[in-house]
Amino acid sequence: MGVTRPFRLAHALREALAEGYGVSRLRADVLAGLVVGIVALPLSMALAIASGAPPQHGLYTAIVAGATCALLGGSRVLVTGPTAAFVVILAPVAERFGLEGLVLASALAGLILVVMGFLRLGRLIQFVPYPVTTGFTAGIGLVIASLQMKDFLGLAPEPLSGEAMWHERMLALGAALPTVSLPDVAVGALTLAVLMGWRRVKTQVPSPLVALTVGALASWALERFAGLAPATLAGRFGSAESPAGIPGTPPLFVLPWHLPGPEGPSAALSLAYLESLLPAAFAIAMLGAIESLLAAVVADGMTGQKHQPDVELTALGIANVAAAFFGGFAATGAIARTATNVRSGGRSPVAAVVHSLFVLGSVLALAPLLGYLPMASLAALLLLVAWNMSEARHVVQVVRTAPAGDVAVLLTCLALTVVFDMTIAVTAGILLAALLFMRRMVEISGAELIGPSHAEHGKDLPPGLIVYDIGGPLFFGAAHKATSQLFALDRKDVKLVLLDVEDVPAIDATGIVNLRSAIDRLRSGGIEVLLAGVQRQPAEALDRAGLGPEVVARHASYAEALSEAKRRLAG
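-> structure tokens emitted (571 positions)
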């Protein structure tokens, strides 16, 4: 049979090269990669800071994970790196376990993703309902935006533990409002205004490049001419070894458990410690899988290509493990950067590799300049990312137009994401969506008893025959409703029941139990049973359950079954 698809790493790269890769394609990919790299450079630093890590670790993530996933993945244009969705999971991990725990949790998540890829679970992500994904992404956007207020306003709140709830953090920010820094507010507001206004300008120059340059110049001018010093990367993260706050060195190999913990040097690695990281690792893996495959689907729609989800999950897992051994943390496919890549002309994994090389070159050549970036400007960039991520217009549209059950699922996921975390929100959302699905299955499933006296369908039925027409899947919840009238059937003039199941596309264990019980009850009363129009899945399920044709007679169509019923009654 050959090699199974999850093991065919580098599927997208192989496919792109097999079609022929010339100079024109290389030029287009290089230009697209440079544009994406300009966008990813400040964003990676901002996301690292928001996640509780020094800014260079976001850059290391974009370099290592971005190139690894591009070379091994199943999507031609997907761009991988740190994303805003992870912030709500990673920030508490970083506060509780330090950089060591953050990187180790990301590596464990990578291993989980590799297993998911090998088990061919990529296509299962499509079963996560739209209200669930919309709800938790909107909630994540709200949390990210609220947490940026600290740097955007230059606040100095009281420190909180890593387990502090969202409302406790908001109360701490509210209490710190008297410490607001007007220079930071001015720089942040100016950056945000340029970010929003530049999108209306028809140019290939990315808005973050322009806005952050303007913010850095404004910060320098305030300090140079007014003696006011907004917080910068160098001021926040600078040290004697790295005055700019970002080392001008490439990502170097490091064992994750040798990185600093919450209180300095790490303790010895243990199974108990890894076990304490597993819940966060599982959440990172699930969110990474969902966001990466959603981004791949968006990319498919923009390019007309088709990604391989299992290959993508496997590559994403390998990329997260690899990044962890170079100081990187959780990475996944980024929808905004992927869309920028496609719009800029990228059509193969080479573009994403060029984006990683650009970030690497910037670390080596521009580290001193990057230290001048204001914290308020980076916060403004994340505020815009959070707004775009929340998709507020889609949320409002769903609330206004969707059925009440879907609205309840969306709002529940949003609220739980904000108040607790994404893991609880997605778990509760999927459970609610499953219950809603079951209720809808019950609503569309039904049955009708048709006898000789039936005004429309009873003309061809001889005395003693009852037709029981079942419609819809016989799943749990719906099965009892569909077979309930058979249990109540107790008519002395009935000699044979024809079960018309032509409209039953599927049956589960509960449906089989209910159907068997109904057949046994009818036979115990001396009533024969025929089945008409059994479809493939119900037929196979009934065979396995011991209700094959030798036990209950079947006929391919209702007409054949009716003829057989008439023959038996006549005889």
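Residues 1-6 have pLDDT under 50 and may be disordered.
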